[in-house]
Amino acid sequence: MTSLPPFSFALIGGLLAIWLALSAWALVSGLALRRSSQQARGQAGRLADLLQSAPAIPMLVRADGRVEAPDRLASWLGRTTVPAFLSELVSEEGGLEPDHARALAAEIKAAQRGSRSFALPVSAQGSSRTLLVRGGPAGPDLASPGTIVLWIFDATESQSQIEDLREQVTRYRDALEALSGVIEAAPMPVWHRTPDQRLSLVNTAYVQAVDAQSASQVIEQGIELIEAIDGLSPGASAARAADAQTPTARMLPVTIDGARRLMRIVDVPLGPVGVAGYAIDMQELEEVRAELRHLVQANRDMLDRLSAGVVQFGSNQLLEFCNQPFLSIFGLTPETASAETHFDRVLDAMRDAGLVPETADFPAWRAERRQWFQSPNAQEEHWRLRDGVHMRVYAQPLPDGGLLLIFEDRTEHVQLSSARDTLLRVRTATLDNLFEAIAVFSSDGRLHLWNSRFRQIWAVQEVMLATHPRVDELMAALADRLARPQQSSLVHQLIRAATVERRQRGGRIAFADGRYFEFAAIPLPDGNALFVMLDISDSRRIEQALRDRNEALEDADRVKTAFVSNMSYELRTPLTSIVGFAEMMQSGYAGELSDQAREYVDAIISSTTRLARLIDNVLDLTQGAAGGLPIERKPVAIEPLIRAVAEKFEPRVAERKITLALSLRPNIGEVKGDGRRIEQAIEHVVDNAVRFVNAGGRVLIHAEGSQKGVRIVVSDDGPGIESKVQARLFDSFARFGHNEEGQASGLGLPLVRQFVEAHEGSVSLVSQPGEGTIVTIDLPRGD
């Protein structure tokens, strides 16, 4: 066996050492590669997990149309598997909307040809999911040329937000346009200032207020609406508002269209964009406020003059105003009813005065009254207080939350109302118990009121009257009650005359049963008509009986007059013979008479003379009653006639120691008439005065004239005549007394009346017992 040289062993050992070193290096390198591979696999797994959880899904579209994408893309497309080719993705079964699929295919082809990126929103079929596809060429390290990388995002939520934002932008744009239109159309000046307080926007009202041509002119020239006041310019005022970040307002005078107006200038800071401003014309408002103040004061002055108590509370339930009657009614002092007095305290003071209704729980009652402030409608109450006082309370809530109370003392009204009700009952009872039938018809002719007598006379049911029929309908229904039914229209005419013509008319009407009624229609002050019916059946029968009796009496009077006239003529013949023989005996034709016989003859002559005068008076009376009294018409001087009458009575006056005085005025003159009859009339009056005046009395004859006639007055201071006798003094054959010598009154005064009235004159008598009598004769001058 050949032994190797040491060099060989050294070489082999070196080789072994190298091999061992290489083996160790290979082992270490393998272990390092293994660790690197494990790390790469871990990193790849983490990247795969990251891609799976990423909001976007990558997809490669190669130049030949092959598609590479994760499996979860299938669920986004509504498919079970991921499409293998682009044609499958953009087909109708690819999962995208057809329009979106065609648009995606066109974008991918364009990106492959032009190497450009794109972004396209697409939607999956049958799903509300919105996908955003962002594509672009893939890098050379990723894939071969012509490959497109698509990143697919789920943009459903963001797209919805984008749509919302677009809608908001549209709304804001519309609102801005509308606001700009409102500002432009605003009747008040509106402007905007930039942060450096220069005008940047004005509306038409502003342009017109400063008499500019356009808004651009105002902005370019910086024309201000108001002038600087107290060194404070409009821009400085806006700067203050911007610094304070608080709106400011000032009342300033502004000249617009040559008129000075009071404007309220308001600056509103808008943050970094500047300051907005507007001006409100307060001139009319201030004038209205001033007028309102005057009106409120005038209203309160008027309320102070009302008899009703008025008190007003504000929304804080504190007293704002009360008039004097309120203080007087409730006995409150001005201090109690001051402006700071609460509603509850006022009610407490009224309760202390005893001028609220008595109640067991006053706090609860007061709380109920407090609800008047919140009541939507006005409230009205009637309080019955002590001593029979009735108070009407009217509570009116005010628009500002306050309350107005009106207290009216209705005591007198209630008493009058009670009295009125009593009077109405009395009237009803009175009308129902009247003997007359009464009905009241209104101005339109309808029956308004009636009593029971009216219903009984016409025999009509209450039910029919209760319908208030018109007078024509009523009388048409009652025409058969009348003796002549056509007379029913007469009642209608009378009611019309009373209501329309306002004239009172009356008449008589006969019923079919023989009754007679007198009726009248009387206009009433309220425009109605009062219809009254009175049963005159008995009066008519009595009237007929009286008429028959009067005719009989007139016949008897004519017989008596003829008898008296005939007897007067018959008595005159023997009386003339007696007077003639007595005068012959007195003259001594029958021989010398003794003294006693002479007294008898004188008595016979005196009695026959008086009897002849009475017969003449009777004849005159009968002739005057028959209208055949002869009267002459000649001028008669009254003064001589009166003196002649006075001379005739001188013996009797002297015998009875009576004073007969004359008072004759110069203007007596003449009258045209029968002197003998006038003398007889005066003589009869003087005869009665001389006959009835007591011994030692006085009789005065006074006469005076005027243009129309002569007045003769005969007065005495005799015993006078009673009033009940005076009415019969001028009646024929009336006897009304005796004088102190027992002589009775005769035919003198009736004859005086006949003689004076025959001359178209008048005679009157005035007398009082114990004060004498005055007889006045008035005679006209005549033609």
From TrEMBL:
UniProt cross-references to CDD domains, sorted A to Z: HATPase, HisKA
Domain of life: Bacteria
SMART domains associated with the record: HATPase_c (SM00387), HisKA (SM00388), PAS (SM00091)
Signal peptide extent: none
Keywords from the UniProt entry: Coiled coil, Kinase, Phosphoprotein, Transferase
Enzyme class: transferase
Keyword flag Transport: no
Reaction catalysed by this enzyme: ATP + protein L-histidine = ADP + protein N-phospho-L-histidine
InterPro entries in UniProt: HATPase_C_sf, HATPase_dom, His_kinase_dom, HisK_dim/P_dom, HisK_dim/P_sf, PAS, PAS-like_dom_sf, Sig_transdc_His_kin-like_C
Stretches assigned to coiled coil: 155-182
Pfam family of the protein (one): PAS_7
Molecular-function annotations in GO: histidine phosphotransfer kinase activity; phosphorelay sensor kinase activity
Residue ranges constituting the Histidine kinase domain according to the UniProt record: 566-783
Entry annotated with the keyword Coiled coil: yes
Cellular component annotations (GO), alphabetically ordered: plasma membrane
Assigned EC number: 2.7.13.3
Protein name: histidine kinase
High-level lineage: Bacteria, Pseudomonadati, Pseudomonadota, Alphaproteobacteria, Sphingomonadales
